[in-house]
Amino acid sequence: MITGCGDPLEQGHCFCQTCSTFHMKRSKFDKVVRRFDFGDAIFESNLHHVRGASGFSSRSTAEEVTHGVDGTGLTAIVTGASSGIGVETARVLALCGVHVVMAVRNTSSGAKVKEDIVKQVPGAKLDVMELDLSSMESVRKFVSEYKSAGLPLNLLINNAGIMACPFMLSKDNIELQFATNHVGHFLLTKLLLDTMKNTSRESKREGRIVNVSSEAHRYSYPEGVRFDKINDKSSYSSIRAYGQSKLCNVLHANELAKQLKEDGVNITANSLHPGAIMTNLWGYFNSYLAGAVGAVAKYMVKSVPQGAATTCYVALNPQVAGVTGEYFTDSNIAKPLPLVKDSELAKKVWDFSTKLTDSQSGESSS
User: Which domain of life is it from (predicted)?
Assistant: First the structure.
């Protein structure tokens, strides 16, 4: 990610991926980078492609990390499967024989994506279902319909998200990024957990829950999670709010992994950073930044097939069997922010989220 080498951005003269792996002069892009005050965790060098212990790197694609994997008999839900890396995740899982349920906000767009995937992967098993993660009512409706269909569930890919939007409240009166990126997925996972447990037990196959987080989890608010100020508009930072939601994705996966392990359930829960990818997540950035991004994108960001690789690796690759409570990047286990290992914070986020979703079961509160 773009960070400094210990020097203020105003004085620095390099891009650094985790402060060490890639350096280049900033020139005109300097001014754009300095407009942000979070580290700066937007771009990631795609030139750092040393293969890790898994045998894969930042340049590996989703097809490469699942090569030879037979997903026949598995059923997966992929949220946000109508755009960005969600499309590629759905396509590659289907290519491996997985029955993919595309949980999307816009079913018309989802139907078009499904049609395109079937053209590429004849015989692909795909269904499109409506899901708006910013609405708890929509999440509950989706789960109800899913269960009514009698479908099993082996893989839950919590992929959908929004990034750096202006301050807005969800239909449940929760800051929109926190609501969409964390709370919606927390509730979805909670309501589908029994289905996953039953599937794992009956099929005797490991279930996997995958939370797509981001390196931006390192750049939340100074206090990490602002439990008492989730909806505080006056101190809202679009970037830090995004980081907060991504931090909660990791904490959620870690606490879930702990609970599932204690219960002896054959389901793993992990989180990951997909890499910096030019997708519609960038929609809230202004045209000036978008132009600057475009100028360096081919050097600094991943392609969509590369961006979907870590998700598909964690979801399907045999190397990840039994691995739980870990954070991945570039299809390898990585070290997240040390705060992520705070079990008390993880439990606090779990309890806070549970209370939030329980309180919204009947009516919204401010």
Answer: Eukaryota
pLDDT of residue 300: 63
CA-to-CA distance for 136 and 179, rounded, in angstroms? 9
pLDDT of 134 > 90? The answer is yes
User: Tokens in use for 243?
Assistant: 């980081």
Taking alpha carbons only, the member of 164, 183, 163, 189 closest to residue 270 is 189
Residue 148 CA to residue 76 CA, distance in Å, equals 16
CATH for 99: 3.40.50.720
Tens of pLDDT, residue by residue over 22-65, are 233 333 333 333 333 333 333 344 445 689 999 999 999 999 99
Q: What is the length of the chain?
A: 366
Is the distance from CB of 32 to CB of 289 less than 8 angstroms?
Answer: yes
Q: Would you tell me how many other CB atoms lie within 10 Å of the CB of residue 256? A: 25
Q: Is 144 left (phi over 0), alpha (psi -120 to 50) or beta?
A: alpha
Q: Which secondary structure element, helix H or strand E, spans residue 292, and what is its range?
A: helix 287-300
The one-letter amino acid code at 245 reads: S
- What is the rounded (10 degree) CA torsion for 357, 360, 364, 366? -40
CA distance 139 to 144: 9
Q: How many domains does the chain have?
A: 1
Write down the pLDDT at residue 291.
55
Whether 87 is in a domain gets the answer yes
Where in the sequence numbering do the catalytic residues fall? 236
pLDDT tens column, 244-290:
999 999 999 999 999 999 999 999 999 999 998 865 544 455 554 55
d(CA 227, CA 239): 17
Per the structure, the complete domain to which residue 190 belongs is given by 61-284+304-359
Tokens 């409506």, residue located: 130
